[in-house]
Amino acid sequence: MTDNLTPAPSVPGETGLRYVARVTASMSHEMKNVLAIINENCGLLEDLSFAAKKGAPIEPDRLDRTCRQMAKQIERADSILKTMSRYAHSFDHPEEPVDLHDLCQLVATLAGRLAAMRRITLMVEKPEAPCMVHKHPFALQALLWQCLELAIVAASEGSTLTLIPQAAAVTIAGIDRIEGLNGGMSSLPATITGEGTSPRLTLHLA
Amino acid sequence: MRILLVDDEAEFVSTLAERLTMRGYQADYSITAGNALDLAAKHLYDVAVLDMKMPGTSGLELQAKLAEKHPAMRFIFLTGHGSEDDYSAGSRQAAHYLVKPVDINTLIAKINQTVFANDR
Question: Are residues A83 and A61 in the same domain?
């Protein structure tokens, strides 16, 4: 039987907590935006209904557009909550086979807003063959998140960071400057290569 | 009264502008800081309602740029974040700091308070 409260191995408590806090803040911000859009469209329907009661003509196309906007936001909220559910349940099993491509996609989705705030695009490269490791999925997410946060700060606005799953490692390409990276990496099983031309940050997961 | 709305969520800010217009306000909107500065250069706004967190230029940075060029303009911040840091920073720089989603009547009351307090 799995004890869901067992701490994730190999991730310092503060790192794990920081990851949870950052993801929760980002996702709740996204949900607030979704609610704000639904709230405005709901209010607009009320306004149009009020105007119609006073004799103003109803424009069916305007109503359709408003309903479509609300449906789109409900889909967006559903997608956010599915991602959050996947992230939350990653703590359920202490160790299991983890597909590094799936891991990269999940962490890139979770970090999407953080990257967008700096106008940075996140991409995930699909490996030719599955790259699997047997580890705690939550611990891997927390480590990759920490690396990605460092990479986002070290990338220029408007640039693209690419997450590349490899055998027992994930490399982040697209970093522009390595100043400041080293200090943040002291507690991570990670290395920097290509310092002169195109620096890459590699998280080792063996 | 002329209002400038700035938020990177296009569907939010366009619908809010439409609802304010239905209530008799002149409301323009922008989804980028750059376009907001262009609009402010063309029109005289009484108040700007700014999202705190936007890609690239933050609401606080945009507020500083707008205030420098348009000293009479007043500001209200809207945010999805409810952090203490954001609240402290937003409250220092603007007349009001509101957390999304916001009831339009509350927003209008804050807009009126901000503009008419400025007139006195």
Answer: yes
Same domain? For A77 and A125 the reply is: no
Give A41 to chain B, closest Cα distance, Å.
Answer: 7
Asked casually if ipTM beats, i.e. exceeds, 0.85, the reply is yes
Nearest CA in chain B to A31: B80
Radius of gyration of chain A (CA): 21
pLDDT of residue A1: 38
**Which domains does chain B possess?**
2-97 (3.40.50.2300)
Decide if B16 and A38 are in contact by the 8 Å CB cutoff: no
Instruction: List the single residue in A with minimal CA-CA distance to B13.
Output: A37
Residues A63 and A86 in one domain: yes
Do residues A64 and A115 both lie within one domain?
Answer: no
Q: Does B15 sit within 8 Å of A29, measured CB to CB?
A: no
- Is the separation of the CB atoms in A8 and A16 below 8 Å? yes
Nearest chain B residue to A35, by CA: B101
Strands A160-166 and A169-173: antiparallel
A25-78 pLDDT tens trace: 999 999 999 999 999 999 999 999 999 999 999 899 999 999 999 999 999 999
The alpha-carbon radius of gyration of chain B (Å, integer) is 13
A121 within a domain of the structure (yes/no) = yes
B99–chain A Cβ distance below 8 A for any pair: yes
* Per-residue pLDDT band at A116 (split at 50, 70, 90): very high
Chain A touched by B109 (CB under 8 Å): no
Distance CA B99, CA B81 (A): 7
d(CA B50, CA B54): 9
Q: A145: domain CATH number?
A: 3.30.565.10
User: Of A38, A70, A90, which residue sits at a domain end?
Assistant: A90
